[in-house]
Amino acid sequence: MQEHSFFLRQRLSRLLAAGALLLAVLALGSCSVAAAQAPPSSSQVALNSLPDAPQPQSVDPPRSPQSEDVAVRNSPRIFLHDEAAIWTSPVRLRTRDLEWLVPLTLVTGAAIATDHRTLLKVVSHNAGFNNANINTSNVLIGGLIATPVVLFAAGQIRQDGHAREAGILGGEAMADGLVVQQVLKLAFWRERPGVDSSRGRFFQSSAGIDSSFPSAHSTLAWSAASAIATEYNSPWVQVAAYSGATAVSLTRVLGQEHFPSDVLVGATAGWLIGHYVVKKHHKIRLK
Q1: Which pTM value belongs to this model?
Q2: 3-class secondary structure for the chain?
Q3: Looking at residue 22, what is its pLDDT?
């Protein structure tokens, strides 16, 4: 009995630690997006109303990463700045962010609590069905990854600045998403559904760098979809991008590759990252 009680306390402490880290990660875009949309301060307005003074031509004024042109040569610097902003965003949380953080955390907790039953009792274990869904998810994620590349190439060929910008920012969003999901995988060490009868235990070092939580496919798919859908303010583009990302997440579960909570957290992090990157750095008026 005492051994069972100790096990429960240990598991509860681990889940609380995981929940704290998860809450921090889910907050990664909220404050930064708000900052990107914040109106200029009164001092900035006052300065902007003054006539331009002559500037010395011998020294270029310093430029922050936010003011950098969206170009391939500036991508590494912007990427590093964005990673710093992503991982420090929880310290800028505001009370109103709880309106979506609390429900999302509760839903994620409910998903984790039912993951074992879902994968064991609800999702088919037919090998042919599972493989078909795995192949579908791989094809779909390949298409979403290729989309920013195609947009950038089209922008270069047609001298279309908007397409070029969409391609670059879409690629940057996926790079940010790749780092975030890999850090979380190493932090949570969750077993894959195919291990230990789909128990999905956390903090198992045997899970290694390819642990289950969150889904890499889902994070990358939603990073790309969110960036493209934000860059192109068209219902058709948004439906196509988000439908593709949803299909990637769903087929990862139906393929017995991930638990529902894995794809939920991956999708949330990906959406926040893609939305943040475009809102923060776009220079061309969104269409």
Answers
A1: 0.78
A2: CHHHHHHHHHHHHHHHHHHHHHHHHHCCCHHHHHHHHCCCCHHHHHHHHCCCCCCCCCCCCCCCHHHCCCCHHHHHHHHHHHHHHHHHHHHHCCHHHHHHHHHHHHHHHHHHHHHHHHHHHHCCCCHHHHHHHHHHHHHHHHHHHHHHHHHHHHHHHHCCHHHHHHHHHHHHHHHHHHHHHHHHHHHHCCCCCCCHHHCCCCCCHHHHHHCCCCCHHHHHHHHHHHHHHHHCCCHHHHHHHHHHHHHHHHHHHHCCCCCHHHHHHHHHHHHHHHHHHHHHHCCCCCC
A3: 53
